[in-house]
Amino acid sequence: MTASAGTIPAVATARTPYPEAARRLLRETLFGAARDQLQSKAWSEITMSNIAETAGVSRQTLYKEFGSRAEFGQAFVIHEGERFLDGVEAAVREHLDDPRAAVGAALGKFLHAAGEDPLVRILLSDDGTGGMLPFVTTQGMPVVQWATARLTVTIEEGWPQAPPTKVKLLAESLVRLAISYITAPSEAPETTAAKAGELLGPFIDDALGSVGS
């Protein structure tokens, strides 16, 4: 059958390859199982067998995907951090005409979201030896690198003429400050964000302020 002049042609849509879609679903299922386990146990008490059983998969499947319990823990922390970075990036884009305001709003958004999230409180409520706290502190380099890379891209998109080296330094400084504040909060998020903005203000002006949005 040939298409008539009035026929609307079919629009080809890109589809995620099945193996990739299946892997995404598996990882989401495993992360969901970990969240369920964390509602009643500390991370130090949760085994890979617990996660696999809750997810309805074999332990071999879990190990094949992540390799080790530590690798799973790092991936889980990064996965949970995605939603915080989404909010941070939105806050930056809302203040492209004022770099200092963008940084302050982004840090404030992150601290508010982290402080109100029940899972974050669970993850950080250990003594630093058997829970998930080391994944963002003593063993936190993968998390720092991931968050820095995402924030670097956001800043580069907002201020494309900013020097790349300064953008990366600013992004990493903000990530490390944010991690420090959520693991050892001492003041309200607004106060913390304001102080951080004051501390980094001169560098922000130098790196971003002169180039505009």
Describe the 3D structure:
With 213 residues, the chain is an all-alpha fold. It folds into 2 domains: 18-67, Orthogonal Bundle (Arc Repressor Mutant, subunit A), CATH 1.10.10.60; 70-209, Tetracycline Repressor, domain 2, CATH 1.10.357. 69% of the residues lie in helices and 0% in strands. The protein has 9 helices and no strands. It has helices at residues 18-38, 48-55, 59-66, 69-93, 99-116, 118-124, 141-158, 164-183, 189-209. Helix 4 packs across helix 5. The protein is globular, with a radius of gyration of 21 Å. The termini are far apart. The model is unreliable at 1-8 (pLDDT under 50).
Which regions contain 5 or more consecutive residues with pLDDT less than 50? 1-8
Q: Radius of gyration, Cα only, in angstroms?
A: 21 Å
Given the helix and strand composition, which structural class is it? mainly alpha
Beta-strand residue fraction: under 5%
Helix content: 55-70%
Oligomeric form: single chain
**CATH hierarchy: architecture of the largest domain:** Orthogonal Bundle
Instruction: Give the overall form.
Output: globular
Intertermini distance? 53 Å
Number of E-state strands = 0
Task: Predict the CATH topology of the largest domain.
Answer: Tetracycline Repressor, domain 2
- For the record, the CATH class of the largest domain is Mainly Alpha
The main pleated sheet reads as: none
Short description:
With 213 residues, this protein is mainly α. The protein is built from nine helices and no strands. Helix 4 packs across helix 5, helix 4 (69-93) runs parallel beside helix 7 (141-158) and helix 5 (99-116) runs parallel beside helix 8.
